Structures are given as structure tokens and as C-alpha cells.
Amino acid sequence: MPSLWARIEPLLADVQKPARYIGCEDGAREPEHGPGRVAWLLMYPDTYEIGLPNQGLQILYELLNERADAVAERAYAPWLDMEAKLRERQVPLFSLETHRAARDFDVLAFNISAELVYTNILNCIDLAGLPVRAAERTGADPLVIAGGHCTFNPEPLADFVDAFVIGDGEEVIGELTDALRGWRERPRHEVLCQLAGIPGVYVPSLYDVVYDGPALVAVAPRDAGVPAVVEKRTIADLAAWPYPSQQLVPLTEVVHDRLNVEVFRGCTRGCRFCQAGMITRPVRERPAEQVRHMVASGLEHTGYDEVSLTSLSTADFSGIESLVGDLCSADIAVALPSLRVDAFTVGIASEIQKVRRTGLTFAPEGGTWRMRRVINKLITEEDLFGAIESAFSQGWRRVKLYFLIGLPTETDEDVLGIAELAKRCAQIGRGHVRGATVAVSVGGFVPKPQTPFQWAAQDSVATLRHKIGLLQDALRGVRGVQLRWHDPRATLAEGIASRGDRRLGAVIEDVWRAGGTFQEWSEQFDLDRWAAAMERNGLSIEWYVNRERPRDEVLPWAHISAGLHADFLWQDWQDALAEDVVEDCRWTPCYDCGACTGFGIEHVVASATPPAGGSQGTGQPLPVAVTLGPVRSSLGAARP
Amino acid sequence: MRVRLRFTKLGKVRWTSHRDVARMWERALRRTSLPVALTGGFTPRPKVSFGLALPTGHESVAEYLDVELATAALDVDSLPARLSPALPRGLDVTGAAVIDDRTPSLQEAVSSCTWELEAVGAPQDEVTDLVRRALAAGSIIITRERKGMVVTDDVRPAIVSAVVAGPPSCIVEGFVDHQPGALVVAELATHPRSLRPAELLAALHPGLREGHVRRTNQWIVCDGARREPLPRVATDAPHAEARAS
Q1: Which of A165, A421, B100, B218 has its CA 20 to 30 A from that of B205?
Q2: CB atoms within 10 A of CB B75
């Protein structure tokens, strides 16, 4: 199979960042393709520097290349300048390792982490030389498979993807490879039926969608043997999967350009807006010893001087203090993303950032205690001010605060609460440092499938603008506070794709055909394309986005299960409206959301007690007292 | 002790930037656990200084960097074999020597570089003619951008030598898409005004395009004699070219 390199290289002198297209990373494999080997092209549908660090793809890359019957290479979305050259010279999309044409692979496998990349997926399929619609692809065409968080509502992409993989990929990737050995000798339909028989795999073309006017009636399998509900895959024990073991080290700058070691997967803090926290349950910690080993060997082979301990809330890792204490040394920096908001966490942060004290980020998300009870992000003002106090007193000069606006039940008062908190934080900062800065980032809330807020109405662009205006007015001229916000129009487009049904496929295709790629990039984003495509296809933005959905409505993702019981999600939604809270079940009794009980698995957590200092959702009374065993909450009624 | 290293930049890795190469070196020095001296201050950095930046996309068999090591006991001859495996394919260390603490930095000392460059867009005899005319000219005035400013310069003094050495070399097969062209070997000054290979071609004729470019030497003039920053001796790693291809 010929390499396309000789045709690619002449294009590189005239494109930005040519190193995006050369591969050659430390840790990259150059696998030998062969007849008995299923060839996977793992793709991230955004630029190289955004996609390369993706840990999910790196894990699958290693697992596949370890197998004798599989090879895996990678590709990322070419930037606009390169795309134009590829099309002009009729060079197809290519892999980075051996610069082989994408359509020479058996599978194009996409990681989908965000809705606004959907049009890029179509563009990549098209650049590969395949029909974008799955129904038009034939036996000779590779299969298009997608995984990642967005597949928990696969319907908007159902027209373009042959099979979706729901949940953790470590086990199912092997089962798919087994099923695909020699697949080209079998009829495509037969192969798809076979894939649909693998737990966690959803083949949309085998399901009929029934509508009644605008309403969705059912997404139901056409044949026996195809599951009516596809349940997500969950690995029981992270310790069995110490990957990536050879993290890719890019030759050029990328985001998260450091060693990344996943310390746990899943989060049960129960923040109701957070899709990641809902669909990745339960908590599965990696043993501290394995973390230490992965950090040591990773630093040695990569040459990095910085390691990030990744998870959805790393300060919650059992024994985080002693782990961080062990890792810290003069020449190694440790980064903890997703900091919890309390003084204890700042203590850890100050321990690890002795030298490079750049910035601290906290995410209270809601501006008032009432709002934070609605979203179940149980940060008290004492927590926040304590964290801010210790941050500025320990030498930080700048603290970032993340908030969401447009949350369910939000009033102007809740929004103005954001400004109040920011002012107080800046005031606290000035007590310690001259020129203390509080940078406030405000994002518009997009209700996500498989969360308690999946029924909620999303704020309109006008309402979000009104709320941003309130904050601008309240913070105008306030010393030490900087306000930034996300474009409400992009929030709307994300909302269209987030909870759409299969009819959205035509919209995504129209936006792509109109040139709407790289929609995550503000300079490329244009809401008009989305609005025009919705109108052309007779679909109402208001109906899909801004309307509260009733309990009896069939949701487009009803046939996809993250294990969460529908009545748990509904009850949690009702509790949210009643400002009632739920505890973190890691340390308190199970309330049976379904994620563990349905799959016969449970939390893997080394410590039976919550970490010190964190009151948030731990079920501990305030002020915090660390005791052994579960503690009843003083914050709200415990669930029966 | 201060050590000067010579290395190559060949093959696909040439599409990385000068800054990218600096980061590759930082990681390689950590991976090999060499005792690199650090700068002081809040953000200590390894004491490493690079020579003249190589434009992204150009190859080289004559890149240099100086490293300050916090030790006096080190077998310098072992450095190429230690460092090359820790660097990406195409970056190979081909020479190493201890240099005096007072040796001027590469940026200051290097006064010219020799380049092999493909001129694409005209047949070999036409390019030969263009080169002959350029060398015969008393001055060549071009307008070019320098640090965001448009300036008009006489670039003739910066052309130390230039000769057409043959047809395009096809250093990488298929690179020139069978277009007419010539391989030019030119020595271009870096002081007081530098001239880039692409600017040489523009000065020869606006219709010429730059194809494949490789830096083959950097030159230091010292007491009237011209020499390279490191002598080419037996420490040159013979495997470097093979590994990069």
C-alpha cells in the first residue's frame, strides 16, 4: 500500500504549522499492515494540537497495536489551509504514521467529545473519499465507528456513523476487532448485525424511528437479536488497564503538553448539569502504587518535567496528600485539573506549585447558595472564601472562577450573585496581594442527555445576553475583577446538537455543506448557518432547545442507557426544582441511581472516608469533621 | 563545563520549528539525565543556547547548540551515542567537544552558512545564467520584510559564493513534481545583514521558487581563517544519514 508522503510533502511549505501532518511523535508506532490484521484509523475530529493529547484515543491506540490481529494509526482534522490544498491536489485524508490513505483502513474510528465538532466528522469522512451518509457506503468502504461522551445521544450523527460504542472502550475495542476479522468477505449488513450483537454497540441503521408530527414516538430495533436498549460498557477495575504506558510525545506544541496519568474514572459528586459525572459512574480509583509507577516510568520515557493527575475531581482521590507529597520534587511540576473549592485543596495546590505559581481555577458554577443547591454543587460561601483566602495568602495573584448562567430556575438575583462573589473574592485578594485579580468566566448552560437536567429548557440567546448584561453592569469599574463570557450563539448551536434527534442529521449535513467546519473555533463559527439549516429542514430551534420537556416525552436517547434509572433522573430533576440535595454515594449509603446495581459493579475507592476539608456533597455536617464511616447530612434529607 | 554539539535535522522532522527543536532538546537532556546547569530565578531553565534558527521546512547537517553541564567529569565523546536515541528520528548528534567558557556564542560567531537549495521554475542553464549575472552585479537591491518592517537592501554583499551544481537533486524523491529547476550551492552571510535562501532566489529572479533546502555548513571567521563551529572529525556519526532516510 503506497505512502502518500511524496504527494503530501510538497503541500507543507505553504500551510500553517506543518508539523501537524508529519507524525514522528515519540511513542508512535509504525505498524505493519497485513491481510490478517484489522486496520483502525483512530481519529479526533479537531486540529492536531487539540486531538493529540486525547487519552481515550491513546489508550485504544496502544491496546490495538498490542494485538497480533490489529494495527492502529491516527489522523486529525486538517486545518482549513491544508484541507484546501488536499482538495485542490486530490490528496485524500491520510494517517500520520505511514501516511496511508484513510480509505485503505478497515475502520475510521472517531472520538467525539463535543457537539460542535459534528460537522468536522462529516468533513473527515468526505476527505477520506467516502460518502458521508452510511446508507450510501458499500462493501468496499471502511466502516465508520464513533465513541466518546457525545455518543450518549448518538441520534444527530446516526445517518453518518455505522456503529457507535457507548461507554468505556478498553474491552469492547477487542471484541470489535474479533468481529471484524475478515469482514470484507461478508455482506456489509451481516457485519453490522454482528456488531449490534456486541454489548455497548449501537448500529443506528438497524433501528426504525417513528414520529408523530414533531414528537418522537420510538426508536426501535427492526429485527430480533438487536437490543431494544443499548447499555454502556464499564470497566470494573482501572488497575487492570494501566494505559497509556507509552504516552505520545508530540514534536510540536499541543494543549495539555505534559505527562497525563488518569488517577480515577467516574465521579459521584452528583452535579446535576454534568454529563461526564452522570455517564461515567461509578468511581474507579487507580491504586496509588500504580499511579506512582506510571508517573515514574512516564516521566523517564517522555522527558517531560510536568505531570497532570487527571480525573473529574482529583482532590477526591484517596490519599491525595501523600501521593502528591511523594511526587513533588524540585524539578517535577504536578498539575491537578478540576480543583475542588476549599482551603484543603488550595493547601495541596500550594504544596505542588512551590515554584511555578501560575493560576488557580475554581468552579463554583452558581452565584447563590440556592442556585448551587439546585445544581447540587454544594460549595458554601465559607468554602469559597476560605479557598480564596488561602490562595491569595499563599502567593497566588490571580484566581479564575468558572460559572454557568442559564441554569434551571435561575433568577436575575442568582446571576447577580456571581458578581457579588467575584467582588468579595477580589476584596479578600487585595487584603493579601496588591493587584490581586479575579477572572470570572461565564458559560451558557446547555442541558445534556442522560442527566437530571435533560428535560430542562435552555435559555434563549436573548436571555443569556440579558444575563451577561447584568454582570457587565454589576462589574463595570470594579477593581480586580475581569469578566469573560462564552458566545451565547455558540451555546445555542451546541444546544441544537446536544438533545437533537435523527432529524438533526440533515441540519448537520447542511451546515457542513455550507462550509461550517471547525465550529468550536469562534472565528469559524456562524449561527446563521445553523438557523438557516434548521429552517430549511422545517425544524424549530425553540422546540429542540428552549422548551421544557415533559416526563412522558420519548427522549431521542431513550434507547441508550448509561445505567441510570429513568426514575432516578426524574426524581433528581424534581429534587433540583425543590432545591433539595443529594450526597456523594462514595462515602454515604447507595441511593441506587442504577449505575452500579444494573451492571453488578461498585465503587473502587481506597478510603472509606471523604478527604479532609471538603464539605461539598460529602454528606458531612458543616463545619467539617472527618470521621470514620458514612455520616448523615445536615444539608438535606437523605434519600430513602 | 561547556559543551558544543553538532546535530542534523533531516527527513520529516524538518517541518518542526526552531522552538519545537528547542523543546525536543530539553526533553532529550532530561531523558538522558545529563547534569545540565540551570539558570537561577523563579523559573529555572536549562542553560542551553542554540545557534541561528533554521527556517521550518529546511534540512540541515550543520546545526549546533551549546550546553552548560554542572560537572567536569564527563566523557564528551560518548555524548552523540547517548543523545541521538533520545531525540526524534532525523535529529542525530554528529559531533561534540568541550569549548572554552569564553568562546563567543554561536549567534555572535557564525558569519555565514552554506546551503544546497533547489531553485524550481526554470531550467538548469537559465538558473546558471541568473547566478552568473547576480555574481557579476555590483549591487542587488531587493525589498523585503524584516521584523514586520518593509526595508530595501543591497543583498549582493551577503552572497559570498553561489554555483549551480546540477539538476534538482531530488533529495526527497517526488518532491519537485518533475518541474524544471537546478541545485544551487550558495554561501550566504549572516552578518552584518543576513540573507535567507528564499531571498537569494527572489534576488536571482522573482519567478524562481524554493524547493528542497539543506544547510550543509555554518562558518566562523577567526583570524582571517574560516572554520566550522566544531571540526569535522571521527566523532561524526556515520549512521546519521541512514537513520534519517
Answers
A1: B218
A2: 8
A5-221 to CATH, choices 3.90.850.10, 3.30.70.360, 3.40.50.280, 3.90.650.10: 3.40.50.280
Q: A134, A25, A35, A143: which is closest to A73 by C-alpha?
A: A25
Who among B31, B44, B172 is closest to A303 (CB)? B31
ipTM value of the model?
A: 0.90
The full DSSP string for A378-415 is ---HHHHHHHHHHHHHTT--EEEEEEEES-TT--HHHH
Task: Mark out chain B residues that contact chain A at CB-CB < 8 A.
Answer: 12-13, 15-17, 19-20, 23-24, 26-31, 42-44, 56-57, 86, 88-90, 172-177, 210
For A524-583, the DSSP string reads: T--HHHHHHHHHHTT--HIIIIISPPPTTSPPTTTTEE-S--HHHHHHHHHHHHTT----
Question: What CA–CA distance (Å, rounded) separates A299 from A601?
Answer: 33
Q: Determine contact, residues A119/A110, Cβ cutoff 8 Å.
A: no
Say if A301 is an interface residue toward chain B (CB within 8 Å).
yes
- Domain locations along chain B: 2-107+231-244, 109-226
- In percent, the amount of chain B with pLDDT more than 90 equals 69
**Domain B2-107+231-244 - what CATH class?**
alpha beta
Fold category of B109-226 in CATH: Alpha-Beta Plaits (3.30.70)
The pTM assigned to this predicted structure is 0.93
Tell whether the model's pLDDT for residue A534 goes beyond 90: yes
Strand, coil or helix: A621: coil
pLDDT of A634: 32
Residue to test with chain B: of A3, A12, A21, A26, most B Cβ within 10 A: A26
